[in-house]
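Q: I'm writing up a methods section and want to include an example of the input and output format. Could you take the sequence below and give the corresponding predicted structure tokens, formatted cleanly so I can copy it straight into the document?
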Amino acid sequence: MSADTLHNHNYEPQSQDVKNNEVCVLIGHSIEAITSAVVLASLGHYVHLYADEEVLSQQLQQYGFEHHLQALWQMYGQQKQIISHALPESADALIQRYEAMSPIDEKKTVSLYWLFLDSIKPVWVEDNWITAFNHSHQQNLPLIMSGIEQLGAVSALSKRLQRAWVYYVPFVFLQDGDAYSSMLNPSLWLLGEKTSDSSQHLELLKPLMQHARAAHHADIATIEFARSSIMAMLATRVSFMNEMSRLADSQQVDIQQVSHIMGLDKRVGSSYLQAGWGFGGNTLPTELIELQQASQKHSLDMPLLQSVMHINEDQKELIFRKFWQYFDGFIDNKTVMIWGGSYKAGSGRTADSAIHPLLALLWSYNIRTLVYSDKAQSELAALYGQQPLLHLITSPYQQLNEAQAIFIISWSADDQLDVAQLSQQAMPIFDAQNALTRSQIDSLLGDYMGIGRAK
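A: Here is the clean output for your methods example:
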């Protein structure tokens, strides 16, 4: 597989003979573990994935919106290029299997172990799995760790492991909704090394390192700190823009135009400058919690971090307050339409999405909610299927005539909004994502309330 082929975003793996007999042993059930298994298989390697089978099945179902990843997972599973196993109760049992079968069936040899720490925590006692790997006869094999831990935790683990080739790979590049491509062509590849300048021992991952838009290798503690700092900065930018959006409302200034102008300044850049309901998902909130705990552990105050978290939580209720104020508090027993439920456009996950506090507040006023969220529909049904005020619909314009207001939580820029249909009803739109363009807003017949922008 050539470098040019890998770099091509249209690359489609074909059913073909595996190019080598190397086996990568992965332990984990997270989306990062699943994506890594598929990418390694795409690079021509065999993958043995050990996971809690029930949780793995749930994870695959929850990430059903990752269509490309799902298709490749099924294909490589059928070809026996990815083989999933139940996670044994101890690391000893897993390691002994490969030591007793070396080389294993068909003369395959184990090339690396990759541990996804969040997956093994509930099953393997830390002292026990470290002891098991230390007693292993395969000390020359690379061991990779991934996951979001408190600052210094992974570095401390690496020091307790007696092998030299220990690495840390944080998934700062993974994009929900495009997991496979974002790992095959990572935006930023960070590699923490226990032994400096030892990346040559990760030959299997060389294509990923080479095709990253940016890459950096350093000691594990530094990479951990960089990972947390990157995520905290992204969260800070979001909360800053959301705070500025409130001031923009009072000044009758469109925060979207301001964001565009700010992005023209190379010192600022354009990423994460969109005002909206805030940030959700698993990565940013988890990272901030870990940072908060680390600061408390060392008796340090981090007022900026506290403000970022407070603004983010408060921002999730802001669109409801605009709705309440618009109707002067007379909102009981209404019917509203909600578009989107995921924490970001393109994802089917609703973790920490503004949909949850919004639904809770609306239902407290006995408001009937018509929700359209194509990718997150199944997750919302699983969470709120018994709620009589929730009605999941299959088209954004279905039953539009029954609603007295529309909320927009997440909407893909690829899906063109039908402003003509919205204007037919002339109902108020509460846009928590600032999904509408200025020209669309100006052409609306009804009222519009966004985040830091109004009609």
